[in-house]
Amino acid sequence: MRRVKYNIEKESIDEQIRAGKFNPCLKLTFWDKAGTHTHIVGAGYSDTIDVYREGQETFVLTRNFGLGYIGLEIFDGQILVGEMFIQNDSEVEELVGSIDLTPYTIINRLAQCIE
To answer: Among 36, 97, 103, 113, which residue has the least CB neighbours within 10 Å?
Structure first.
């Protein structure tokens, strides 16, 4: 699994209207040998976002240290194939160990719960 550098922006108003949303989501875009990849993610504007890629799968980890939550979205190509959101401190501790672990370690631990 390798870390991915990405660009981030808000969805456009037209994209929001087409999706029937009232608030813009965040749109991550990155490039690799396979081409350009864009994913709409459920991250908040103040979240820490880490993106990793393995094969055709993209792992998007969102963490908010102040609010104590962790989210993981897994994409296969453009399709969301799994997601998990943990907001409870005891769940974070039970499933991950600590919100302060490396993103790679957190992704590996949460991905096992999704698959």
So the answer is: 36
Residue 45 corresponds to which tokens in the numbers above? 């504007």
- Looking at the DSSP assignment, which residues form a beta bridge with residue 52? 3, 59
Strand, coil or helix: what is 99? coil
Residue by residue, DSSP assigns 33-51 as TTEEEEEEE---TT-EEEE
Distance from the Cα of residue 41 to its chain's centroid: 6
Q: Compute the distance between CA of residue 10 and CA of residue 28 in angstroms, rounded to an integer.
A: 9
Q: Give the pLDDT confidence of 43-98 residue by residue, as tens digits.
A: 888 899 999 999 999 999 999 888 888 999 999 988 999 999 998 878 888 888 87
Between CA 58 and CA 73 the distance in angstroms is: 8
Please tell me the distance from the alpha carbon of residue 57 to that of residue 110, in angstroms, as a whole number.
Answer: 14
Q: How far apart are CA 115 and CA 110, in angstroms?
A: 9
In the chain, DSSP finds a helix count (H) and a strand count (E) of: 3, 8
Kindly report the pTM of this predicted structure. 0.87
